[in-house]
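Quick one, T. Sequence first:
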Amino acid sequence: MPHPPLPPHLLELLRGPNPCVIATLRPDGQPVTVATWYLLEDDGRILVNMDAGRRRLEYIRQDPRVSLTVLDGDNWNTHVSMQGRLVDLTDDNDLADIDRIAIHYTGNPYANRSRGRVSGWIDIAFWHAWGPGAKPTS
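Structure tokens:
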């Protein structure tokens, strides 16, 4: 599996509001996957944001290793899978991070303002891409 940085055509794919699945590990080692929104940051890390009451947040605090698969929203035969660690967990007290992500996906700030949120950034260690959109165009 290649190491970062990702090539420009894959960064372009990741800049879109595409369908995404994140995998975390339960304390017994069992993987758990869930659909999620994400945002590619300028520094190459991936921002995710979670409800403060979710179990996956407990799992991440115990074992920060994650896998993230992003599907090309226009062609699900193309995807990018990234493995790494979720670092820099911070409370999103003013909901600024979830608002950035929600605006990226929906054009509007996040609707549920009543529950706490936690932001985390994924440092990508390895990646793998598949499908016609995963190859550079000439």
